[in-house]
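FAQ: What does the model actually see?

It sees only this:
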Amino acid sequence: MLWLGVIQAGISNGQRSCEKGDWLLLASDTCEMHQKSMTEQTPAIKSRVPTLAQKCGAEFLGTAFLVYGGCGALTGAGYLTGGTSTFRGADLLGVALAFGLAISIMVYAVGHISGCHINPAVSVGLACVRRMSWGEAGAYIVAQLLGGILGALLVAVTFGAGAARLLGYGASNYNPMFVNYFGAIVVEAIGTFFLVFVVMAMVMDRRAHPGWAGLTIGLTVAVGILVTGAVTGGNFNPARAFGPTIIQMLFGGAYPFSHMFVYFIGPIVGGVVGAFTYEYLSGLRATEPTTYTGVEPGPGD
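And it is asked to produce this:
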């Protein structure tokens, strides 16, 4: 009788095990059917390489947003006081954060399309180290300069034509109390050197985590403006200088036009040196010109 009880208990346990196994199998089949159903209902999203026109469009809008956000904050700081108050440290901090945040936003918005150079100094630097072709760099630069004009025009629309004469639209100019023409070029070259150095590290080096690129590059610009803002305005970007200068002069604002070339020569020289320096220190070197495919991992990857 004892052996019979043991045998019956074993059969009962076996039945329960089978039932449990059946439930696990049923759950697995149900999960697979659900996944298959969801796959059939959700259209497949395929990554494709953006065309040059799409990349240039991204550079155009990205630069326009940078100029509108940064130069708009600069004009707005004077607008709040009617242009009667001097520019203070708090104003400089606000402008620096505006430029830094604008760049960060655009890196995450269009970085996967064009790489988000939004700066001719970056494009020239990358072309010099064969990270993009010169033909593509030239197209980028044209789009960036036009984007700078659009951004400045949006600042004019926001604050009115009279602001060009009273406040300006954010056109950069160096302070002759601290530097002369050549000194201003050197200061701009230093700031852009570090900017392009960081861009090379965060965007072009596959060992870096791409999710931090926008924040890191934006903070680099903000710190550079905090340091050099009182001396040269902390420009580091020919397109950011070009657009506001042209629109400010068209609307009747005064500006010594020859000073604008400080913001072309300095950033381009600094950007080229920064790109070569990072390649040397990192041990990375492109053997032939490469084209940004626009299918990099996103910020959360």
